[in-house]
Amino acid sequence: MTISVGHRQLLAGKVALVTGGGRGLGRAIALDLAAAGAAVAVVSRSAEQVEQVAVQMRELGVRALGFASDLLADNAPAAAVTRTSAELGSVDILVNNAADTSVDGMCSHVEDARLAKLAGHMPRAPIWHCGSCRPVSRT
Predict the structure, then answer these.
(1) How far apart are CA 106 and CA 57, in angstroms?
(2) Residue 54 burial by CB count (10 A; 0-12/13-18/19+): exposed, middle or buried?
(3) Which of 96, 38, 40 is nearest to 71 (CA)?
């Protein structure tokens, strides 16, 4: 979805956190949220990518934050929410887009340890983010 000019302030006053926001779908979502007037934090493992997206969002006239984090690390989701809240305000919109794309296809050979890490963390990371946002979200 692309936000039209008429909807420029649709999300004014709102704060969004987009995980996996450095490229692809996450980047597109972050830019559309910014175009609708939201202040947006983007986080991914690539500092360079998220800072480029943050610069593009600032050019749209909104407050933007880009920072790198491995969201599968212990306490990383809570830290991302805390940083976003401290710099932009309480998170109103959470887009859980981060994913580990290092596995080359489902049929490729994957080491058991790597597969265990993916299976153990990937489904839980979005839940960790939601739980971290809840205490600081506006009611």
Answers:
(1) 34
(2) buried
(3) 96
* Residue 73, number of CB atoms within 10 A of its CB: 11
- Contact criterion met (CB below 8 Å) for 86 and 63: no
Least Cα distance to 14 among 128, 22, 3, 52 occurs for: 3
CATH numbers and ranges of domains, the chain:
5-136 (3.40.50.720)
pLDDT for residue 132 is more than 70: no
Token representation of residue 136 = 């600081």
Cross-strand partners of 15: 39
What's the rounded Cα separation, in Å, for the pair 34 and 124?
A: 27
- Give the type of residue at 9: Q
Reply yes or no on whether the pLDDT at 6 is more than 60: no
How many helices (H) and strands (E) are present in the chain, helices listed first? 5, 4
For residue 139, what pLDDT is reported?
46
